[in-house]
Amino acid sequence: xxxxxxxxxxxxxxxxxxxxxxxxxxxxxxxxxxxxxxxxxxxxxxxxxxxxxxxxxxxxxxxxxxxxxxxxxxxxxxxxxxxxxxxxxxxxxxxxxxxxxxxxxxxxxxxxxxxxxxxxxxxxxxxxxxxxxxxxxxxxxxxxxxxxxxxxxxxxxxxxxxxxxxxxxxxxxxxxxxxxxxxxxxxxxxxxxxxxxxxxxxxxxxxxxxxxxxxxxxxxxxxxxxxxxx
Length: 230
Known about the structure:
Belongs to the UPF0758 family. With 230 residues, the chain is an alpha+beta fold. It has helices at residues 2-10, 18-25, 32-40, 49-60, 63-67, 71-75, 82-100, 112-123, 160-169, 190-206; strands spanning 129-136, 142-151, 174-180, 209-216, 221-223.
């Protein structure tokens, strides 16, 4: 029975298998039955997993009715046992909770001073150079704070892709970059100025505004926005 089941799964050409298609093309490229087939994992002795997934969807007509299906209703489908039914219910409930989840705000930026004081309190005693990005929504609320680089003294090499990958992932409208000088002196170097202008240009191209780049020293900070660097 197991051998028959495996052979039926393997009858599906590699380029058509849902796991491979998701890996190669992303989840949005998959049809509903392909996504469900990934969750089901295996078919039965009489039909492969793709056919079983189609059988489940046909039973409930559309995704709304599948969402409300009970374990017993799922188990009434040939090939869906208790474990598969429980896994489907768990996946549906997780999807519902994700759709209802709200983004957690961890503060709001009202000025460069506000951001500078926040970063100063956190970064002033770092012995290595760190680059921290505050990702903000359209109300300047912080939706994520992320360290994108940690390096040796005078070796900050954070690339725009590290900075803006997070902005895209967290759907940020704006960013503030903070980095510390372990020497304790926040005066910007030529490399700092070039980095700042490069980040601002990248942000303009992507439609993600860089509000400020703040350099943190031991006792105070310097806002490159307030200096008019960009």
